[in-house]
Structures are given as structure tokens and as C-alpha cells.
Amino acid sequence: MEGFHYITAITKPQIESLINKGILQLGLFEEKLCEIKDDEVRYILRRNPVRAEEMSKTRVSKLQNIEKYIVKKNSYLKEHPKSSVSKALETTRERLTRLKLDGWVQIKEEDRTLKIERAEEALKEASYLDGCYAIKTDLEENEADTNLVHERYKDLTEVEKAFRDCKTVNLEVRPVYVRKEDSTRGHVFVVMLAYMIIRRLRRAWKNFDLTVEEGLAQLTTICSMEVTIKGQKASCQKIPRPRQQSHELLEALQIKLPEVLPSRNIRVVTRKKLAVRRKSQ
Questions:
Q1: Residues 6+ apart with CB under 8 A from 192
Q2: Are 24 and 36 in contact (CB under 8 A)?
């Protein structure tokens, strides 16, 4: 479409296909960004060493899981001579498939004992793209250089995280208990405003070893005390000095609490109490 461009990632099979065609080379995937151009398409390549290590550790963890499982199976087969070896072999292979290890791990039976066999070449083939990713775009170099394309693609993860937070994690935009269009739009609008607050908190508290949820839980310890003067109807809400961590969280947000607040006698209904209040009306 004229006037529109794209920045997207390609899948592992697509990367393998480009390597087989000679357009990309495995040696180009390094921690430092590398760019290859084929016709009008630019490919930005990188190997993330942290992600590669995570994938390797996950693979080892899964292997240890299946090894422990086989130890239990062999113990059961030894203690129950009449038990079915073929059934034990079948369930073990099913577990192997669920763990996605069947590409380089095989389970065999010998004298009523299950054994693991690792195919090192298959493992090498399965792991050679660990941590590797490729981004492609049709943008010209004068419109966006290699680093800018990479940064803009990384921004998409923030967009995906925003949708995930709004839909399920924190804000739960669904279920929607409204029927009219204006009410639905209002509901979604409030959710988006809430997400903007969460994003602001996350940025302000990035140097603290806690999540936004944990920070908000800490701020709930801030309270007020109603102060009244004997013989007078006037009263106010006195705010004690917050705890040290609460004080630091507020300071990071550049928020300074007042020492006192006028008493308004306004009833605040929390989300948990709202349903109870509706039933009582």
C-alpha cells in the first residue's frame, strides 16, 4: 500500500530457508547488529546471548525432568515384574513429545529398563539458532538506519505488553458488564487511563526491586487519622509520616503528601465492596 511500510520479525523456519538459499549466513548472527539487503528488503540480524543461554538452560532442565521421570518408571518396573514395559515406554515417549525433546532424545527399552539416548548432531541442529532473530523491513536506509529499525521493532513488545496488561494481567478489560456502546467505550477508556498510570508507575519505580503491584500494596499502608477538637464539630484527617519505603516510592513519583486533609465524610467504595453494596440497595 502506497505510503505504508512494515517492520516485522521472521520465523525460525524462514530464517533457515534464507540461510539455505545463501541470502543469510549463520556467522552474521552476533550480539552486534548486522544488516543484509536482498532486492528491496532489508534484514536486521542479531543473536541475543542472554536469550541463547536461557534456551540452553531450559533444554537442560527439560532433560533433567525426563531423566527423573525415567528413574521413577524403572523403579516401578523393577518393583512390579508383571507391569507392562510397552505401556511405560509409550507414556515416557508421550512425555518426551510434550517437552519437545523428541527431536534429539530417544527412549529405548533393554531388559525391562528404559534408557535415554541423545543424538548430539540433532541437538546441535536444534540449538544452532538459539537466541537468533531477524527483522525485515522495506524502509530505505535514509528513512531509518539499522539501529532505528531495531529500536522500533523492540517498541512493539511494549505495545503487546500493554494489550496483555489491559486484557488479562492487571486491568482485566473483560468481562464487560455493560450493554450500551457509550458505556462500553467509557469502560475501555477508563482501562486505558489506568494503564497509563501503571506505565507511569513502572517507569518511576524501575530502580526499585518490586513490581507495580507490590509498590501499590506498599502504598496501601499509608493511612489517615481523624482529629477532632472537643466541644467542636470541626474535624480533619491527619496523615502520619509514611514508612521509609512508602516515602521513597512517593518521592520517585514526585508526590508530597499534605500533613492534613479536610474531613469530607465521603464514602469510598472499593471494587471488592461494590458488589455487596449493590445487593444491599
A1: 166
A2: yes
Three-state DSSP class for residue 153: helix
Domain coordinates in residue numbering, the chain: 7-48+131-158, 51-127, 159-216, 223-276
Q: Rounded mean pLDDT of the chain? A: 85
> What is the torsional sign of CA 32, 36, 40, 41?
negative
Omega before residue 175 within 30° of 0, cis: yes
Distance CA 252, CA 207 (A): 9
**Lookup: cell for 20:** 539455505
**Cα gap 128→221, rounded to integer Å:** 51
Strand partners, 250: none
Element (H, E) at 34: strand 34-38
Nearest to 41 by CA among 10, 1, 13, 20: 10
Cα dist. 165→1, 23, 48, 68, 168 in Å?
31, 38, 25, 36, 6
- Number of CB atoms found within 10 A of residue 92's CB: 19
> How much is the pTM?
0.57
DSSP-derived secondary structure for 7-18: EEE--HHHHHHH
| pLDDT tens profile 161-217 | 777 777 765 666 666 666 788 888 888 888 888 888 888 898 899 888 888 888 988
User: Hey, is 266 helix, strand or coil?
Assistant: coil
At 5, phi and psi to the nearest 5? -135, 170
Mean pLDDT for the stretch of residues 233-239: 81
Of the listed ranges 93-97, 127-131, 242-246, 266-270, the least confidently predicted one is 266-270
Q: State the Cα–Cα distance between residues 61 and 54, nearest whole angstrom.
A: 10
- How far apart are alpha carbons 185 and 178 in whole angstroms? 10
